[in-house]
Amino acid sequence: MMKPNAHSVKNVSKTATGFLFVFSYLRGRGRFLKPDATRRSTSLPQVGEIQFPRMPKAFFAVAVALAAVPAAQPARRAASLVVVGGTVITENAARQVLTPGAVAIRGTDIIDVDRPEVIAGRYAATETIDARDQIVLPGLINTHTHAPMVMFRGLADDLALMEWLQKYIFPAEAKTVSADFVRIGTRLAALEMIESGTTTYADMYYFEEEIAKATREAGLRGVLGETIIQFPSPDAKTPAEGLARAERFIAAFKGDSLIVPAVAPHAMYTNDKATLVASAELGRRYGVPVLIHLAETEDEVRIARDQYHLTPVGYLDSIGFLGPRTLAAHGIWVTDDDIQVLSQR
Fold first, then answer.
1. How far apart are CA 205 and CA 40, in angstroms?
2. pLDDT tens per residue, range 60-115
């Protein structure tokens, strides 16, 4: 379908302003000519002619100028894309919901959100998407994933976590996980996230550099952590090797426009104290997030109390692990004291 010429429409609307002003004045002051009326005198009007009051010539000059010259208006700014017509759920201070609304985008940045007529007056868009009957809202954020594990979907469902991990997932990962497995799984996960409205996610897995590449190719944002675990994993035979991989990963993606690299010790029950402390120190040294599973199950709480006489949160705090860049996943079995500790760190 042919798009209207926005420039032409703009000029017509501006010119019409002057025209309507003059027309309104004449309509209010005179009478219209009959179809066959002719002027027979230049001094006195005849019956049926428009009768004009005598006015200075300067007035007519001004009126003609108003009709002929478009009114000056601010030039519209360029936008690469405008999404218009949908119900726009904003994130402004008032939490406005605009029905209808419009969103202006330039390159990778959202530059304005307002009513359609306001956005149309401010921006000339290269492309416009009609979002009528749609909801336009900020992208969703998934704060904990293992993206390539979509490949294991349906494997031993409805089991307790420890049984699921130790009897099924850890053995399956040891046999099947490779760089290709991770790349393919992440591409599938990225497609599913995009289709569900997720635009940013936090992840911890193996071969995290492959996850980062696939994430960037998909145009998603990711906070991505290379997993550190005490026993041999698909991409590192020892925790020290895992930490070295994590450091290389951080160096490769630090400062990337879409990827925030991180270090991700799996959990307090799958790493010893030295590995946990080294992971936290690596994160602090590079100023990157530290991702970890925390207080996910009652079994984890039991392990922490049996071995350290503390909660999982209390144990990590006691070894200096927690900090402002710690991202703790789950946090289901936490006490009021744990919550206070987490809020202070």
1. 95
2. 444 444 455 555 567 899 999 999 999 999 988 999 999 999 999 999 899 999 99
Q: Which domains does the chain have, with CATH numbers?
A: 6-68 (no CATH), 77-136 (2.30.40.10), 140-344 (3.20.20.140)
